[in-house]
Amino acid sequence: MEPGALDLASVPRDVLDLCARLVSKGKRAWIVGGCVRDLLRGAPASDWDVATDARPQELLAIFPRAIPTGIEHGTVTVVRGGEHYEVTTLRGEGAYTDGRRPDWVEFVDDITADLARRDFTVNAIAVDPLDGKIVDPFGGRDDLARGVLRAVGDPLARFGEDGLRVLRAARFVASLELALDPATEAAIAPTLDTFRKVAVERVRDEWLKTMKARAPSRAFDVMRRTGILDVTCPELLAGVGMEQNKWHAYDVWRHGLECMDACPADPILRVAGLFHDVGKPSTRAWSDKKQDYTFYEHDRVGAEIAAPIAARLRFSNDEQARIVGLVRHHIIQYSPEWEDAAVRRWIRRVGLSSLQDLYALSSADARAKGRDVEADLGTLALLRSHVARVIDEGAALSTRDLKINGHDIIKELGVAPGRIIGEILAELLEAVTSEPALNERAALLERARAIVGARAG
Ligand code: ATP
Ligand code: MG
Fold first, then answer.
1. Nearest to residue 194, comparing CAs of 167, 233, 234, 221?
2. pLDDT at 4 (0 to 100)
3. Residue 313 in domain
4. How many separate domains does the chain show?
5. Which of 73, 84, 118 to mutate to test the pocket of ligand 1 (most atoms within 8 A of CB)?
6. Atom of ligand 1 nearest to the CA of 49
7. Is the CB of 277 under 6 A from ligand 1?
């Protein structure tokens, strides 16, 4: 399709009906914001937002079953065919004194006034879906065609009234693959005090949305250049310009970004990719012997640095554990000489449920080195097949896989319940890891008896 042309064929029937209903009541209706932008880009729209000059009370009369989701701002949600559509009364906007939301909302009749309060020109286009007429007072279509993200109006004023917009700017640079207009970019640094007021949950949500882009690094580059990252995650900046060693084509910072981009578009996995080498700056040391830099224990140190960051950004407990676990175990030192027992031990250490994540991260990590990629990917493939064989052979990887359990130990050995049971099981698992044939009831009970005896003696 021609850039700037609009293909209304993909507007859902229910949206057209909804707009027709408003028009039949003497009102006007437009589709607006992200869906129009996505239509113009030829991309699938995520949500369909309708703007109308009907006032909130009129909306409730016209759509009696609408949910008054944000009625004080003029928004109701109309449900059609299981889909939710937000219908919002045209509004201008009052002053912002808290950097987060306007002090008051003013309803208006003019679509242009409504578009003027929106953040970026590409998000400030409205279309009457019944006649196809486009309202584009700020040149959003031109900007889209030129590949530019530009604030509506004076960027300093717009970023100064709502702190979230600078982060949205970074996100849209990645997700829409646009370049940031220079004046818009220049307005970010001077307005960071407003950005500082944004709740950390919103920052996290923007990060997660950013991670769905083809290359989220585009957003993180904007965040670094403009100072946004100094506010949200200064730990990442220590790697900027930090040279690595002969295995790497990039500095620590760029390598983290490349790894994030190379991960599958699973947001948490990509966050882990971004952080996987966060322990490198503080562990870098020159080795005379290697005539190169080393980063000993950067996985352990990195996990210690990543843990408070993930907590601070309010990722859920599960997400924090996943991110930190991946940073902790991202180094895979496999060589084909590994005994099966070593592979079993490695699986136990990283956790069976983390294997797919670790494979994905390691493969991204290898590709992000920019050197010797094939050799690293080859080693990873060998590890994967070795792991698959060991699992196939029925290796005991947790105490649950042992042929006896805690009850057996209590009953057969007369041991009193308590912490000792878990400790005996752990010792048995360790023994079975080295010697799989030991995983038989009689042999395990005998070994358990020996452990109990040794403890008593
Ligand atoms: P997506 O849904 O793909 O993330 P979007 O542009 O639809 O992108 P939403 O958050 O759904 O973003 O917002 C819908 C519209 O509301 C935007 O297109 C924009 O016009 C306006 N908007 C949203 N947030 C802001 C903001 N902080 N300041 C100004 N306008 C905003
Ligand atoms: Mg949207």
1. 167
2. 52
3. no
4. 3
5. 118
6. 14
7. no
